[in-house]
C-alpha cells in the first residue's frame, strides 16, 4: 500500500463539476484578475473568519510581506517570531528591511514560547509575528497582552491554520492582521499560488489593497511603490468550492489525528499535543522520536511517505547565520532532530492510518 503525504485527487474528484463549471464561466467572461469571483471569495472568507476585511494576494509569502508593510514595519525594525517555521515567515520581515528576532519554542506545541518573548523586546521592536504551526494556534492571549503593554503590532502567520480557533475566534481574527497561504497542500489550497490577508482595521485593509495593486488607489494614479500581487479568478473559483466543505475537511483531519494518537500513545513515539486553548486543525501530524531516522527509513521502505518539517531552525540557516552566530535555541534545535510528519489529509482512511502505525511500531 503506497501512502503519500498529501493526496489532492479526492477533493478534485468530488468538486470537479463545480470547479469546472466555475472555470468555464471565468474563461467565457475573460475576466481573470480582480473580478467577481475574487470579490465573492473575499466576502466569504471575511464572514468565515469573523472579520470586516479579507484581501486576496498572490501567495502566503506576499500576504506576510504586504501585511508587514501595511503595518509600517521598515528599515531596522525588529519583529519577534519563531525559528521553527517555514523560511517565508522570516523572509517577509527581511523584505521590508526589518530584522527577524527569533525566540525559542515550546517543546510540546512547537509554537513560540510566550514566556521567553518579553526578554527579547527592545526599543526597536515593532511587532510580534507568531506562527500557528502545523494547524495549532500559538498562545495568542499573552502575546496580545505583551503587544498592548509595549505598543507592538500583532500579525499572525496563519498559512497552516485556516479554520483553526483560539478561544472563540478563528485563526487570523485575533491579531491586527492575519496572513493565509492557499498553496495547494495547505488546509484550504488552490491550484497554483494564492494568499489572503484578513483584518478588522479599515485603514490597514485599504493600505493592503493599494499595495497589492501597484500602489494605486485610482487607476493610473500611483501614490506609493506597490506590488503586483493579486489572487486570480481561476484560483478564487477553486477556493470558493472548497471553503464550503472546509469545516468537514478539518474535522476529518482531527479524526485522523486522533486515530494516529490512540495507536501511538504509550509507545516510544510522542504524538503531538493539543493545548486545549482552541481548535487544532492538523495541517501536519507531527510526532517526536529519538529514532526518527530509523522510522523514516522503515516507512520509506514500506512505500509510505513521511517528512521532516523542519530540519534546520531559521537561526541556523545560511542566510541568517551571521545574525545569529553563537546564539543557541536549544528547544528548536532539539525538536528539529526528532520531528517526523506523517501522511495527513482529510481522505486518509483508517486502514492507511493503521498501516502507517504498524510500520512505525515494527521499526521501534
Ligand atoms: C506555506 C507557508 C508560508 C508561505 O506561503 P506561500 O503561499 O507558499 O507563499 C508562510 N508561512 C508558513 C508557516 C507556511 O507554512
UniProtKB/TrEMBL annotation:
Annotated Pfam families: DegT_DnrJ_EryC1
Record keywords: Pyridoxal phosphate
Region forming the signal peptide: none
Keyword Ribosomal protein: no
Superkingdom assignment: Bacteria
Keyword ATP-binding appears in the UniProt entry: no
InterPro entries on file: DegT/StrS_aminotransferase, PyrdxlP-dep_Trfase, PyrdxlP-dep_Trfase_major, PyrdxlP-dep_Trfase_small
PANTHER family attached to this UniProt entry: TRANSAMINASE (PTHR30244), UDP-2-ACETAMIDO-2-DEOXY-3-OXO-D-GLUCURONATE AMINOTRANSFERASE (PTHR30244:SF42)
Similarity field: Belongs to the DegT/DnrJ/EryC1 family.
Protein name, UniProt field: UDP-2-acetamido-2-deoxy-alpha-D-ribo-hexopyranos- 3-ulose 3-aminotransferase
Organism: Desulfuromonas versatilis
